[in-house]
Amino acid sequence: MTAPFGPSEALARLFTQRFSATRRGARLARMLALHELYAWGFPASTPLAADAGLLIGELAANAVLHGRVPGRDFELRLILLDAVLRIEVSDARADRRPAVGEYADQAESGHGLRIVEAVAAGWGVVDRLVGKTVWAELPLAGRSAGQEPPPGGGHDPARVDGAQAPTG
User: Fold this and answer.
1) How far apart are CA 125 and CA 2, in angstroms?
2) Using an 8 Å Cβ cutoff, are 95 and 127 in contact?
3) Model confidence band, residue 67 (pLDDT cutoffs 50, 70, 90)
4) What is the DSSP letter of 131?
């Protein structure tokens, strides 16, 4: 179950994928999400894709680090609506709810939700039958789509994660 989206907005695009609850799975989630955003017309050079990549990286890392249950995957869902991109990351641990902690000077970790709070227009947590879903939203206003993706579903093998792949 997910939180309501607010005023009824038309669903434009949807991407859902499960990943292993490992660091590699979190990295793959970010990379595939950026590929999907590219296919939707948001290349990695756009502000929306850059912010989405940051949020997906943080939420997926939290799912792997704090929401991992052995043998269970986490799920990433991207929902593109008329005015917002909604990012949802679900894991199997309902008992470990994310919260922005107190600032600790020179701490090497614990800043991820501060980044989510600073970048997203809104974020929150909802319970599921098994586990929880952490969601964040990015407004589309002022984050225009780039050029149309190339034919064939948007796959451009010369580009990887927004960077030009080496040739030769």
Assistant:
1) 9
2) no
3) confident
4) S
Residue type, 60: A
Q: Encoding tokens for residue 121?
A: 């227009």
Distance from C-alpha of 149 to C-alpha of 133, rounded to nearest angstrom: 30
CA distance 149 to 41: 5
CA distance to 6, 65, 115, 119, 130, per residue, from 122 (Å): 12, 22, 12, 9, 23
Please provide the average confidence, as pLDDT, over all residues in the chain: 78
Alpha helices in 40-94 (DSSP H): 47-66
Backbone angles phi, psi at 18, to 5 degrees: -100, 145
As given in the structure block, the two tokens for residue 120 are: 């997203």
Evaluate whether 113 touches 56 at the Cβ level (below 8 Å): no
Strands (E) located in the chain: 11-19, 74-81, 84-91, 122-127, 132-139, 159-160, 163-164
- Return the SS3 of 69: coil
Contacts of 63 (CB under 8 A, 6+ apart): 21, 26, 74, 89, 90, 91, 134
**pTM for the full model?**
0.74
Tell me the sheet residues that pair with 136: 87, 123
